[in-house]
Structure formats: structure tokens, C-alpha cells
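Morning, I've got a small favour to ask if you have a moment. I've been staring at a protein lately and its backbone has me curious. You're getting the sequence in one-letter code plus the fold written as C-alpha cells. I've dropped the whole record in just underneath, so have a look:
=====
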Amino acid sequence: MADGTAALLLGKRRNDRTSATGPGRRAAGTGPLAVVAAVFTVAQLLLVRPVLGLGWDEVVYVSQVTSHHPAAFFSAPRSRGVSLLVAPVASWSSSTVLLRCYLAVLSGLALYVALRAWRGLFPTRILVTGGAFFASLWITLFYGPQAMPNYWVAIGALVTVGCFLRRSENPTARAALWGVAGGAALMAVMRPTDAVWVSVPLVVLALARRHGRLLLVLAGGLAAGAADWVVEAHTAHGGLGQRLAEASRIQGGLGWQIAVDDQLRSLGGRALCRPCTGSMPHPVIMLWWFALPLLALLALHVAVRAGRVTRTLLPLACATTAALPYLFMIGYAAPRFLQPSYALLAFPVAAALWHLARRPGGGWRPVLAPLVALCVAGHLAVQLTVLVYTADRNIDSRRDWTRAAGELHRLGVRPPCLITGHQAIPVGYYTGCSSGATSGNNANTTVATILRTADRVPVATLVAPGGAPPPYARSWPEHRVGELRVRVAPPPGERAGG
């Protein structure tokens, strides 16, 4: 009788454990993550707004797959991942609003998948807080609906590192292997060099712990994602070494160059800080940036005491290696460059915030908890303020390109046509023309080719304010288009007679 009672009690306990980790518990754990992703999606559509026109880099990526515009010059550092990402919409529609909505929804779904990759590694409250921290940065909100690679490298990094940890702790987790491969491939297809920097600590850990299968899967994912870039290096750039050298030249020459101050200047809403001159933004805007390393150290201290060092140290290490080239190896800055680092820092930072706000045994700390809440609210207010300012400014500047295109059409520069000179790539896209340059990072033609083209189709050269027209266009009639001076090639007969 006693044995039967004991068996019943044991069976009840097993059922309780099963129900605690069963479908209901899993659904409860994923629900808050889905809410974070949904709010992130809606915030993009409300705050960045789908009417935001395509930026310079977006023009390059989107023009590779659209049938409505000639393809812009594709320089050595770029990868085809973004073009593949936007192809389902851009290949048949020229609607920027539709493209923005598509990318906002896709980025929200991707964030949800990335957060799920970390379930079981940190409590749900930390995943929600970390996801909300990353998603509420003005940089993340601004670039989520844009055709740019850095957000997607960040998502790939989160998936790769999370699944790597899951597999290293549980050798039977086969799905985690697919996550490692998929995340690594996503990083590499977007920015192969960034993928390598993120993966360095993973390779070191795999070698140290003799995780041979994990190492092979990681290498396979990176190779699959970078394959197109490597093949293109040999078919269009004279080899992999030549492409890397050309990419370094375009980026100003990779080497020891401190760009920390440049990154700080860009925090105020500058999409590209090159050259990075001018004053620093208000100290309030930069406070969160200085708080990150302090919170990361606190998170590591807490992890050591809790006996879960690897789960915190590995994302911190990957965040550090991802940031190194953009802080110490290039001479300019863009805030989006550090998105993978911000994503990987999110969960350790969230763990540190929860440690400050709650006692280890439970209950809120009476002084620190309100202070943490106040700091988080202030941080969110600053991020949203910078976001609105940045979005408004970029909407206005891209409308200038639309107006310039209308003026060029009025001057007779209509497709098929060619635009050269200052801002030729974005203005050419908005006008529906090809773009060309004879020098600089986007050089893709010659003077002789431009003149031959002018014999067949309209050609215009854009001159920056205070600049001088190129020699081949000095005799062409000049017109004012906003702040730009435009030299339009006259018909062949008139040029010959002049």
C-alpha cells in the first residue's frame, strides 16, 4: 500500500514537471517576446514612417534587383545580401511605402526569432528587457525598415551566439545546429567581414572545448553566406585579395585609427560621419553609450557569482570583437556599424539592470529600483527624440532628391539618361537615369564614355555648391536645381558647333 502511494505521488510530481515545461509554459514564455517584436514593428511604421525615401546606400542595393531603374555602381565592400532581402518587393514594385512596410514586418519577425534563440539561457524577463533595449535604440528603429545590412548582421549574430550556447550546453540540441548555420550564413551574406569578427570568440571557444561539430557547422554557415561575395571577387575584382584591398581603400585604409570620438559624434543622428567634424552631441545623448561597458562589467560580475559565466562572457566577447574594427580601424563612423554589438550586449545589460533593481532573494531595492526605472525612462525619451529628429531630417533631404529629379525632367533629362558628378547615384536613381563617376570610390566610367553617351541620350553633371564643373562639362549650359548647379549636355550638333 505504501509502495502504491509512493508511486502515485512520484507520478504526480512527474506530471507536474511535464506541465511546467510543456506547451502552456512555452507559450507563456514566447508571448512577451512576441509583444516586444510587435511593438517594435508598429513603432517603426509610426515613428520612421513609410514615406521616407530611399537613401544613398539603399539606392545601390535596391537598384540591383529592380526593373524600374538602372543598377548603380556596386563597390567592393558591399555584399548582395540586402538586394536579395528586398527582391521579393523591389523586383516588381517601385513603391517605397510598400518596401518600408515589408521590411518593418520582416525585421519584427526576425527580432522575435532572435529572441527565441536565447530562451532557456536567460530568464524571460531578461530576454524581454534586452530585446526592448535593443529595439528601442533610435539606431535600431531607424534602420529596421531600411534596405541596409547592419540590422540583419545583428539578428544573425544573436541567433548564432544563442544557438551556439544552447548546443554547447546540450549536445543533443540538433535544432541549435541549424540555428548556428543559419545565423552565420545571414551575417556573412550581409557583411562577410563583420561575420568573421563576430565569430572569432565562437571559434576560440569551440577549439578550447573541442566542439568539432559546432566549429564545422559555424564554418559551413559562414562559407555558404560568403560564397557569392567570394565568387564575385574572382569574377569582377581580380581575386579575393584584390577585393579586400579595394574594400580597404574605399573605407579609407584599414589600420590603427581611433574612431571612438567619431562614433560619439554620430549618436546625435548623423547617418554617416565622414569626415567626422563638428561638435559632440549633448552629453545626455551620449550617457547611455558610456553606461554600456559599466553595465557589461556588472553583468559579468553577477554571472561569475551565479556560476553562468559562459552565457554572459560569450556575447560580451562577440560584441567586443564586432566593435573593434569600427572603433579602432577606420577613420570615420556611422551609428549603424555597431548594431551587432548593441544586440549582443542587450541581454547582459538587461541582467545587470535587473540585478540593480531587485534583491537576489526577491523584492525590489527601495532606492535603486526607482533610480533604474527613472534612468530607463530618460534613456527611452532621449532615443525617441533623436529618432524623430533624424527621421524628419532624412525625409526632407530625400525629398530634395525628388525635387531635383523633377527639375531634371523639366530640363529634358529623362530616361534613358546619365547623371554624373555630385550625388549622382541618388539623384540618378530618383531621375530614372544611370549614374557615373570618373574618380573616387564609385568610379565606373571614363570621360570618353560619358561624351559618347551624350551623343545618344541626355547627360547631366551635378556640381556641388562652391565646386567647379569637370573639364568635359565646362562648356555645357548651366541651370540651378535647388542648391545644385546642373550642367546639361547640349545636343551633339550644338556641341560640335560650339
Observations:
- The longest strand covers residues 459-463.
- Residues 252-357 form one domain.
- Residues 52 and 394 are 7 Å apart (CA to CA).
